[in-house]
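Checklist before submission:
- one chain only
- standard amino acids only
- sequence pasted in full

Submission:
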Amino acid sequence: MTLVYFLIVIGILVFVHELGHFIMAKRAGVRIEKFSLGMGPKLFSYKKGDTEYLISALPLGGYVKMAGENPDEEPTGAPDEFQSKTVWQRMKIAATGPLTNILLAFLVMPLVFMVGTYSEGPRRWDMWRSALPPSVPVLWQAT
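Returned file contents:
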């Protein structure tokens, strides 16, 4: 069960991270070719506009494929390509993924601390009795 929880948490972190890249790229006017949650062979996909949304088999990753993102490809100079954007816009797109993970931590941690976990602490009498030297007489017995 721990592995399942681990995969769920990693999946949420990856989704939020990639969603940050996706949103900032869309705001900058970059054409998104693929948005994938997971890696490897695709299990489910649908296309809306220019973007293909995928859920892939291995949940330990994900990616946003932007037009003109690969530096090995020859840029066409289209205004909706990643390489056509200013350095400042490209920096914002790259930085938004990790920043959304930090934002998620600030949003989730107060909930974690509010919910907490249950653990039975030591009984008060046992705690105080163990702190007293053995020569001190016991005048009452805790129940």
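Reviewer check: The radius of gyration is 26 Å.
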